[in-house]
Specification:
This protein is α/β, with parallel strands linked by helices and 329 residues long. Helix content is 26%, strand content 17%. Helix 4 packs antiparallel against helix 6.
Length: 329
């Protein structure tokens, strides 16, 4: 989830291959593939990039190229309702975080399993992208995960100084506007991309336990255990990156999300902007190429070897394993 990031210019980025991939329900998703030459090493992984809420996948193009230049095949894509996966009209278009995971991300996993048969699959996930991956039936096929500011927008986990302002903005004003227009016109407000009302509903109603909130659409009559059952199948080793000035990605928020994945060995690395000579990073700037020499190598090392680099900036947070996501806060 996110306020709208600044545009990332794509000039000078080698053009990836554009893909149109059909989800299990027939919806066509726009995606992009950076693919190595056919004679590349068979053991290299393919990396799927999961975006934040209502952020176009173009925002991650420079990071994708960084990974491609270092030997990875990379897939970026837009969730249904966003960017290249947007329908003609969003008014009353139904899509939810659950759909983004169990249908859209699952489509990318299935494509990777077919197109890169026998190769490891890794995921880099920003914000809600680190949560929705657990809805995918094939999530157990993931080898390694890097998340950046990943959480599911429980308002009491927001940074204390900004908590009530964010509560009003994202949990009161946004759903009210979405109810009026049939979608959230985020582009007009400069907050985020225009957003399907079901996504707004999931965000604004998120509680201690995501599955406890009332829902509509395809998942309306699915009980909580069934809705979340694939989370427990994820065994990928996870590096959860959080930034100290990210008002969404606080320690309680990151830890709450990680507890949904009880069988995924996780390392939580918390980084202060000053440790990489920056005054601010926040929820978005990790993916700015200004951090190519400082922050991006952390993700690269994890994707390659499942470890943090030597002399990594930041602090490894002590974790309480196997606690219920709703057990604190």
């Amino acid at each position: 989830m996110s306020a709208r990031p600044g545009a990332v210019p794509n000039a000078g980025i080698r053009a990836p291959q554009a893909l149109s991939l059909r989800a299990a329900d027939g919806y066509v998703l726009g995606a992009y593939l950076w693919r190595q030459p056919a004679n590349g090493a068979d053991e290299r992984s393919v990396v799927i990039v999961n975006a934040a809420t209502s952020v176009r996948c173009d925002y991650y193009a420079r990071f994708a190229r960084f990974l491609f230049d270092r030997g990875f095949d990379v897939i970026t894509y837009d969730y249904r309702g966003i960017g290249s996966s947007r329908p003609h009209s969003l008014r009353h278009f139904e899509a939810s975080w659950v759909d983004w995971g169990r249908l859209d991300f699952e489509t990318m996993l299935q494509y990777a399993l077919r197109a890169f048969a026998g190769r490891p699959i890794d995921v880099v996930a920003h914000s809600i992208g680190g949560f929705i991956l657990g809805f995918a039936p094939s999530a157990h096929r993931i080898r390694r995960i890097v998340t950046v500011g990943a959480q599911h927008a429980y308002w009491r986990d927001y940074a204390p100084a900004a908590r009530y302002k964010m509560l009003v903005k994202w949990h009161v004003f946004m759903p009210a506007v979405a109810a009026l227009f049939g979608y959230f016109p985020g582009q007009r407000l400069g907050w985020l991309e225009d957003t399907p009302r079901g996504v707004v509903r999931d965000w604004s109603r998120a509680g201690k336990r995501f599955e406890s909130a009332p829902r509509r659409g395809a998942a309306a009559h699915v009980d909580g255990k069934e809705l979340m059952r694939h989370f427990a199948t994820v065994t990928a080793t996870t590096l959860a990156l959080s930034i100290t000035d990210d008002e969404f990605g606080t320690v309680p928020a990151i830890e709450r999300l990680l507890r949904y994945f009880p069988h995924s060995p996780a390392t939580h690395l918390r980084i202060a902007p000053e440790s990489v000579a920056q005054s601010r990073i926040g929820h978005f700037a990790f993916f700015s190429d200004s951090h190519e020499a400082t922050l991006w190598p952390i993700a690269l090392e994890w994707l390659r070897y499942g470890r943090c680099p030597a002399n990594v900036p930041g602090t490894i947070m002590a974790r309480s394993a196997h606690l219920d996501p709703g057990s604190s806060g």
